[in-house]
Amino acid sequence: RRRYGRRCRRPNNNSMMKELLWFSLSASLSASVQSFHLSPFQQALPPLSTHPLHSKASSRKGRRGFGLGHPTSKKVSYPPIHLDEVDDDIDSQIFPLQDDLEQQLSTHTTTANHNNNNNINAGARVSEFLSNIPRVLSPPPLVSSTQEWRKLQRHAAQTIKSTHLRELLQDPVRCDAMFAEHDGVYFDYSRQQVTLETMDLLFDLAEKQELTKRIQAMVNGEKINFTEDRAVLHTALRASKDKIGTVFVDDEDAIKEVHDVLDQIKQFTEAFRSGHITGYTGKRMRNIVSVGIGGSYLGPEFLHEVLKTEEEGISSSLGYSLRFLANVDPVDVERTCADLDPEETLIIIVSKTFTTAETMLNARTMRQWLWDFMGDDIDVVKKHVVACSSVSATENVKAFGIDTDKYFFRFWDWVGGRYSVCGAAGAVPISLLYGFDLFEKFLEGARSMDEHFINAPMRQNIPILMGLLGVWNSSFMGYNSRALIPYAQALLRLPAHIQQLDMESNGKRISRHGIEIDYPVGEVDFGEPGTNSQHSFFQLIHQGQTIPVDFLGFVQSQHDILIDGEKLSSHDELMSNFFAQPDALANGKTADEVRAEGCAEDLILHKVFDGNRPSSSLLFPQLSAYVTGQILSLYEHRTAVQGFIWDLNSFDQWGVELGKKLAIDVKDHLTKARYDPKQQPVDIPDAPATSRILNYYVKNGREATENGIGVSVNPLTSVTRKTYREHIPPPIHDLGGNVGKLS
């Protein structure tokens, strides 16, 4: 009005606010449309690449709008923003935050109305208006849209994929920089397909993803498992007592809770091992059967296999046995308890919810086994069965017949099953067999690596380095598998545990912001101990697909052998392979080298090794309870780092639910078929293929029974064992196949 006099009407404040809002959103959404998939909310919006901006009284030719510097008779358009050309933060370029919009509109509104006392609170009105706009208008971008990610993509394509490891390994400066040490752990990653520049770019990506901040959020008990509204505190399971009072979840002192349970486990296991706790018939119990599946089984079993041949473990476990019952296959029941005396056996049921289908069926089977020998007195269960479960499952534990006052060892919703080996799931069976003191050494080793992970700078932080290299190999180099090769037979079950830990954690397709990811995540993890693995799948690793490898070796063996006439011990023989295999994978063998050996020309190509296959080497002092704790913690944190970089929730596992639900439906159909006197065929709506194979299964099961094939008498199951006292062990297999009748 001051500029144009009374001919210009005062702009309507409400319409101006709306126009300014759409103006700002147009700029944001126009740019984002050209580089990203829109969210469903954005797809519902009308096209906004251009938008007229004018007031009713300022549309004359040559007149300008209210202070925005654009001819109001023209549409405002914006050129596309190319991410490779901008150096500022991507979030602010492509997805302006609500407070940026608020500040921009408030400034313009104030400028337009600076001389109007009636509109002095226009900025406040805009703020209030914008506060009601859902932030889904500007969802955080995928990590793949960031400059840091794009730089790594270009670096991989333009530099690394055309550079051979043979060349990189000739650079002493690079090689001397690519190792890290902590508390006896030596990590060498010089045989990875990375340069010093690669690592700088990976650290930049870690900074962009606020890796350190996310690690702190995890160990401080923030609820980073947002799909289940839970904290993630497996580190609290091995925290020392002096940390009590530092971590709280829902106003509960997490570390105090942990040590209360550890004290309870110590007291119970010492009483068991000393003979103060006896079975229903008064016999001393010497056999332990741990019933659980997944993380309730794989972690404790891997630790058990290590301690079986550990010096202290050998002496402390004399006179006791520990077995794991995981598979719902009835043969696993037979293999577990065929030669056990129920009167001398303690059963541990490990289930977070105490509802896991496989675990609870096996638990009921073992309870029946106890009752078949000692009678179905509820005190048989109270004397011979203990539980490791979540506090939220207390009523389920009590309903099973377990003494929840003395024999219920709780864990918490803020520990996932695959992360629970340091809690009651591992502490109870391992301490019963080996003693609590040895289990405590395992916790100390894990704590050592935890502290390194939390406090060490990124460039010297072994779990972070391993996690970043995992991201590099999977997302930038395109390697979708990874092998774990421990040169220690006692670690034969480590690959299976890490397989579940990693694949259940990072086998995801949706980012933590609810956006489908467009980059590779989650490797297929597998492995076997060396040298067995060399005679199994190393043919493929050397001359087939490129699969990054982690080699684990030990300076000293748990038990070494040097026989007469040999110059090197058996452990040195083993470790010669540990040192040779990474070089063979990295350097390969050229056609000229093969030809120089006098190879026939038509065989040369068959004997060429391309090399350029990445690996890392981890060297530990000796495989002990303490070192096993370090290894466990290291791989747990590697998994978390990769998930943080990929923007995943690594602590839920919704992918396992669908199959479970369908299995319940199939069980209902099988039950109906088994009990149907008319033996009508199974008919599952909209599933003809499933109906067909189910009918084949049911029909042939009946025919086998009727014709006397196998050991089946009828297709229904009961569980008894009457022959133990006469046959130790039973001379024949007496489980009865699908009958399950031990008579």
User: What's the story with the biggest beta sheet?
Assistant: 6 strands, mixed
Structural class: alpha/beta
Helix content: 40-55%
Report mean pLDDT, rounded to a whole number.
84
User: What is the number of helices?
Assistant: 27
Portion in beta strands: 5-15%
Distance between the termini: 102 Å
Radius of gyration: 33 Å
Low-confidence stretches: 1-11, 27-120, 710-717, 721-743
- The shape, in one word, is globular
Written description of the protein model:
- It is a single chain.
- The chain has 743 residues and is of the alpha/beta class.
- Helix content is 44%, strand content 9%.
- The chain has 27 helices and 15 strands.
- The strands form 4 sheets. The chain has a 6-stranded mixed beta sheet, sandwiched between helices.
- Helix 11 packs parallel to helix 18.
- The chain is globular.
- The N terminus and C terminus are likely disordered.
Short recap of the structure:
The protein is of the alpha/beta class and 743 residues long. The protein contains 27 helices and 15 strands.
Helix/strand layout:
Layout: H1 13-33, H2 40-43, E1 50-52, E2 75-77, H3 90-94, H4 98-112, H5 122-131, H6 147-158, H7 165-168, H8 172-177, E3 179-182, E4 185-188, H9 196-208, H10 211-219, E5 248-249, E6 252-253, H11 254-274, E7 287-291, H12 295-307, H13 311-316, E8 321-325, H14 330-337, E9 345-350, H15 357-374, H16 378-384, E10 385-390, H17 394-400, E11 408-411, H18 424-434, H19 436-455, H20 462-476, E12 481-486, H21 494-506, E13 524-527, H22 538-543, E14 549-556, H23 570-587, H24 591-596, E15 615-622, H25 625-646, H26 657-675, H27 688-706
Parallel strand pairs: 7-8, 7-9, 9-10, 10-11, 12-13, 12-14, 14-15
Antiparallel strand pairs: 1-2, 3-4, 4-15, 5-6
Helix pairs in contact: 1-4, 4-5, 6-9, 11-18, 12-18, 12-21, 18-19, 19-25, 20-25, 21-25
